[in-house]
TrEMBL record:
It holds the Pfam family FTR1. GO terms for cellular component: high-affinity iron permease complex. The chain crosses the membrane at residues 6-25, 37-58, 70-91, 112-139, 145-165, 177-196. The keyword Cell membrane does not apply. GO terms for molecular function: ferrous iron transmembrane transporter activity. It is a multi-pass membrane protein. The keyword Aminoacyl-tRNA synthetase does not apply. PANTHER family: IRON TRANSPORTER FTH1 (PTHR31632), PLASMA MEMBRANE IRON PERMEASE (PTHR31632:SF2). Belongs to the oxidase-dependent Fe transporter (OFeT) (TC 9.A.10.1) family. InterPro entries: FTR1/Fip1/EfeU. This is High-affinity iron transporter. Keywords: Membrane, Transmembrane, Transmembrane helix.
Length: 238
């Protein structure tokens, strides 16, 4: 489920960025710059795919204790970056205006096409890198990723962007980002905790065991209650 939320939100953010830039260029009669916008988006997507492959190859080179150390560091970094993104999104309410300001600056420069290309590339590539980092953290924590849920999240993100910019529908984005931020806080906390666990396994920090265990006991049939960290709900939130 975590991968669905992450991909949905990151793809939606990228879609909103592209939609805002596209709308601004159309409103300012800069149709000749639209090609550069789409080129920047496509190159950013390609770079994200290549970056994902290279990151997997790099991460796969660590084995044993070094592997646990690497995973622990990456998990903690991913948790901190995810938390930073949540706080940044909450504080910055004028993202659309900031993008328009950067687009205006690009249009006023001598190299308009290059400016629009770089603006689109950097904006979308940043979302791609965040997605790679966050999904790697989820994969390490869960022991794998659901491709289906990831694809569903991507389709949902693109679909919501389509409703907003093409169909002109009013979507409660503020509510969505608030709810998803709360869910992602749990995801970030789980990543951070797993990162600490990996550092303990690597012998970097001492392991004191569970200092405070609030897990409910197993049920009579031997199954775990919903809120147990091995139960359905607890496993999603831990």
């Amino acid at each position: 489920m975590a991968e669905l939320i992450i991909v949905f939100r990151e793809v939606l953010e990228a879609t909103l960025i592209v939609g805002i830039l596209y709308t601004f260029l159309k409103q300012t009669n800069q149709d000749e710059s639209l090609a550069k916008l789409w080129q920047g988006v496509l190159v950013a997507l390609a770079a994200s795919i290549v970056g994902s492959f290279l990151f997997q190859q790099f991460a796969g080179g660590f084995k044993g204790q070094a592997g646990k150390l690497f995973e622990g560091i990456v998990m903690i970094v991913a948790a901190c970056v995810l938390g930073t993104v949540i706080v940044w999104m909450a504080k910055n309410k004028n993202i659309a205006e900031d993008l328009k300001g950067k687009a205006e600056k690009a249009l006023s420069s001598k190299k308009v096409g290059l400016g629009i290309f770089l603006l689109a590339f950097v904006s979308v590539f940043r979302e791609g890198i965040e997605t790679i980092l966050f999904l790697y953290g989820v994969m390490m924590k869960q022991g794998g990723l659901s491709i289906t849920l990831s694809l569903v999240g991507a389709v949902m993100g693109i679909g919501m962007g389509y409703l907003i910019f093409v169909q002109g529908k009013k979507v409660p984005l503020k509510t969505f980002f608030n709810v998803s931020s709360i869910l992602l806080i749990f995801v970030a906390a789980g990543m951070f905790a797993y990162g600490i666990h990996e550092l303990e396994s690597a012998g970097i920090i001492p392991n004191y065991g569970r200092i405070w265990d609030i897990n409910p006991p197993k049920l009579a049939d031997g199954s775990y209650p919903l809120m147990h960290d091995k139960g359905y709900v607890g496993s999603l939130l831990k």
